[in-house]
């Protein structure tokens, strides 16, 4: 027997007969509890579930997409009054339709309070979801004021290859705190 085990058994006090009887009397009539909740999974199954979840929601792919699509150094949009932009080759009538609210957003993305890096990832994830669900119009809420998000989002949007146009949202979709974005459908 190791010295640790000897020390452990030596320091453990022995129960005398009276204490043992008192304990038995106290727990008399009780029964063992059965676990009516979900049984804990063995470690191997936990790892498999985590791998399945990562396959369903590949965060690394979204992170890679955000760095592929959006550069923080690119400043291709010059803000002059209302936030608006139409891709070359698209009709300028799209801007008027976006301004009037002719396109209702099918997806809303709220970026309030996010850092630039987190907002960039959320934007890339939104574009991936729009492609997957064949969504044409979405609304990006960046908030009021002249913060970094409000300034940076148009620069990122211009870099997205599937962009058709964007315009400051009409009042019912967020006004100057949001941007309506029109995306090419990839059927």
UniProtKB/TrEMBL annotation:
Domain (Smr) ranges: 109-184
Region annotation Disordered: where it falls in the sequence:
33-61
PROSITE patterns, sorted: SMR (PS50828)
Q: Which Pfam families match?
A: Smr
For this UniProt entry, the molecular function terms from Gene Ontology, in alphabetical order, are:
hydrolase activity; RNA endonuclease activity; rRNA binding
| Enzyme nomenclature, EC number | 3.1.-.-
Q: Name one GO biological process term.
A: rescue of stalled ribosome
First-level EC class: hydrolase
Q: Where is the signal peptide?
A: none
Question: Which InterPro entries does the record match to this protein?
Answer: Smr_dom, Smr_dom_sf, SmrB-like
Q: Does the keyword rRNA-binding apply?
A: yes
Q: Origin, by domain of life?
A: Bacteria
Ordered alphabetically, the record's keywords are: Endonuclease, Hydrolase, Nuclease, RNA-binding, rRNA-binding
Family, similarity comment = Belongs to the SmrB family.
- Describe the function of this protein: Acts as a ribosome collision sensor. Detects stalled/collided disomes (pairs of ribosomes where the leading ribosome is stalled and a second ribosome has collided with it) and endonucleolytically cleaves mRNA at the 5' boundary of the stalled ribosome. Stalled/collided disomes form a new interface (primarily via the 30S subunits) that binds SmrB. Cleaved mRNA becomes available for tmRNA ligation, leading to ribosomal subunit dissociation and rescue of stalled ribosomes.
* Assembly with partners or alone: Associates with collided ribosomes, but not with correctly translating polysomes.
Tell me which NCBIfam families the record gives: PRK04946.1
Q: What is this protein called?
A: Ribosome rescue factor SmrB
Could you tell me which species this protein originates from? Idiomarina aquatica
């Amino acid at each position: 027997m190791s010295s640790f085990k000897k020390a452990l058994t030596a320091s453990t006090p022995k129960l005398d007969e009276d204490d043992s009887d008192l304990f038995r009397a106290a727990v008399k009539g009780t029964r063992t509890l059965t676990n009516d909740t979900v049984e804990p999974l063995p470690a191997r199954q936990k790892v498999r579930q985590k791998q399945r979840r990562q396959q369903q929601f590949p965060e690394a792919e979204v992170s890679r997409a955000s760095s592929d699509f959006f550069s923080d150094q690119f400043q291709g949009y010059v803000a002059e009054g209302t936030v608006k932009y139409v891709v070359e080759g698209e009709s300028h009538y799209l801007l008027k339709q976006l301004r009037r609210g002719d396109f209702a957003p099918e997806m809303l993305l709220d970026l309030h309070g996010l850092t630039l890096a987190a907002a960039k990832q959320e934007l890339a994830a939104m574009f991936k979801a729009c492609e997957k669900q064949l969504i044409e119009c979405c609304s990006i809420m960046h908030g009021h004021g002249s913060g970094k998000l409000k300034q940076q989002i148009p620069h990122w949007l211009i870099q997205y290859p599937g962009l058709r146009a964007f315009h400051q949202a009409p009042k019912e979709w967020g006004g100057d705190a949001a941007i309506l974005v029109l995306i090419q459908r990839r059927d």
